[in-house]
Specification:
14 helices, Aspartate Aminotransferase, domain 1, 14 strands, eight-stranded mixed beta sheet, Aspartate Aminotransferase, domain 2, binds pyridoxal-5'-phosphate, alpha/beta, 377 residues, 2 domains
């Protein structure tokens, strides 16, 4: 049996009848663009998120771009992002001729370093983009506090943490992506709530902002053939919305399955001193989009090869930090200390984690990792 990073086929099989039915009804109604399923999915997700407005779009990268357009950022404005993230977060900043300001992350949670955010602020700073990396929220109490004090926008990149709960100092609980001015997510197939193609969405609690986002995602159109601003064409297909409404009902159960796999890995690796298992932050649940270990950098690539030879896949998220990417060299500004990001890029390794993982398969993965470290203390 082939071991996979994610098992989309197995996940589909368990909900096949309902998914097939939902797809077939879209096809028989043939309302492929902005069919009623798009609005009902937006409503279902809004209910799940506790009432935030949900504006579906074509993918997570578009969501981030539309968010920055909707906030009225103009060329030269600075936007603070972690250097340790997927390229999409910072790419759209550059595309809009805004300046990405790359800051370091915390060594334990891999999320935005609050201290560095504070230091990176200049009179040109307009927004902060916390990325809830690998399924766990950044310190949103601190991010929102900085944003209020400096009058900045907050755009949450929730592509990896949909379903996670943020726990405020005062005991309140809110869904990841609904805390900042705008939250952005992706329904890429392997994300925690994935569709069967591309998809994405924006969240906001601000009615006016929601209207602006809807307008921008739809060619800047206020009514048919009346265009108030330059927009983009970014829609969630009706078929994808229909699939997502079925899968959304299982999201909490999917998150729990991932948490179960993570806990089982944790137990198995506790006695291996060379391995650092994922740290849970006190202010967020972890929905484990990835299960990422820190291992000694000189062993990381040999571990990956060793596992590969045993038929165990693993991934490096992310091997090259943004400040070493040619595309960002001339357009970004960097904080002077990005040493945590550097270290993480050399020592992270993500193991297979998904909703269909059996104990049998997981034991095989654990055995591979354990054997590798046996003679390496
Ligand atoms: C997946 C992802 C995106 C982009 O989503 P797409 O739907 O692939 O465009 C953005 N940010 C992060 C952190 C992601 O993991």
């Amino acid at each position: 049996m082939k071991i996979e990073m994610v098992d989309l086929k197995g996940q589909y099989r368990r909900i096949q009848a309902e998914v097939d039915q939902s797809i077939l009804s879209v096809i028989s109604e043939s309302n492929f663009i902005n069919g009623p399923q798009v609005q009902s999915f937006a409503q279902n997700l809004s209910d799940y998120l506790g009432g935030a407005q949900v504006i579906p779009c074509a993918n997570g990268t578009d969501a981030l771009q539309i968010a920055m357009m909707a906030l009225g950022l103009v060329p030269g404005d600075e936007v603070i992002v972690p250097a340790f993230t997927y390229v999409a977060t910072a790419e759209v900043i550059g595309l809009l001729h805004l300046r990405p300001v790359l800051v370091d992350v915390e060594p334990d949670t891999f999320n935005l370093s609050i201290e560095q955010v504070e230091r990176a602020i200049t009179p040109k700073t307009k927004a902060i983009v916390p990325v809830h990396l690998f399924g766990q929220c950044a310190n949103m109490d601190a991010v929102m506090d900085i944003a209020h004090r400096h009058n900045l926008f907050v755009i949450e990149d929730t592509a990896q943490a949909l379903g996670a709960n943020y726990l405020f100092y005062d005991g309140r609980k809110q869904k990841a992506g609904t805390i900042g001015h705008i939250g952005c997510t992706s329904f890429f197939p392997s994300k925690n709530l994935g569709c069967y193609g591309d998809g994405g969405a924006l969240f906001t609690n601000n009615e006016e902002l929601a209207e602006t986002i809807r307008m921008i995602a739809n060619h800047g159109q206020v009514k048919k053939y009346v265009h108030k601003v330059l927009g983009v064409n970014s829609r969630l297909d009706t078929v994808q919305a229909a699939i997502l409404s079925v899968k959304l009902k299982h999201l909490d159960e999917y998150c729990q399955a991932r948490q179960g796999v993570a806990a089982y890995y944790d137990d198995a690796f506790r006695s291996i001193s060379a391995i650092h298992t994922p740290v849970r932050s006190p202010f967020s649940t972890h929905v484990f989009h990835q299960y990422t270990l820190l291992v000694p950098s000189e062993l990381r690539d040999t571990l990956k090869d060793y596992l590969q030879k045993k038929g165990i896949p693993s991934m490096i998220y992310y091997p090259i930090p943004l400040h070493h990417q040619e595309a960002f060299r001339s357009i970004s500004r960097c904080s002077e200390d990005l040493s945590v990001t550097e270290r993480l890029c050399a020592s992270v390794i993500s193991l297979p984690i998904h909703t269909e993982m059996t104990t049998e398969v997981q034991d095989e993965i654990i055995q591979g990792v354990t054997e590798f470290f046996k003679d390496k203390i």
